[in-house]
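So, could you explain this one?
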Amino acid sequence: MARPNSPEPKFRRRAEDRPDELLDAALTLFVAQGYAHTSVAQIATAAGVSKGAVYLYFPSKQAILEGLVKRAVTPVADRALAVANIAQGDLRATLRSLLGSIVVGLTDPKVFAVPKIVIREAVIAPEIAQMYRNAVLDRVLPFAIGLIRQGVDSGQLRAVDPELTLRTIMGPIVLHVLLSEIFDIRPERGLALDALAENHLDILLNGLFAQDPESRPDD
């Protein structure tokens, strides 16, 4: 019998850590060679366990990807929604807080890698797109649409279509990521999501064109 003050057996500690070890191994392989070209056996080898051990924690490869979404992206969405809830009332501040919180989360390479995998693989594996929608988009989009609708009702916004307006707001960020990750087209300064968000908010809140100069008085 182990003494009360003896350290916990190594195998028991590793059993608690193993899901994260498997997710880390899977993330590395998904980024390097793609989701479709990665097998559960390869993930097991990279994590230093048997293939059977993987199935003790994740019943399928898709479940592993879902685990990555829940570990990395879902907390970002939760924090963004919490921040936006706190900032409600001033829609300008709420939009800035919402976008800022998302961008801060995505600056973590391990977090940003997950939506990149989804974007790259969803065309050939539609179930991945559905899974990501269920886990993230179906929670964030209705909330954001509701914010815009509240802004219209309160008079802070013109009578715009809430759903189309949300797509207009999110469109530049989505396109920015697509150009970078699908077409390998990036600005000179790199992806710079924080700079893009600031630039987008500036145009969104202040407009694109310079203000007209004041009319000169007649001579």
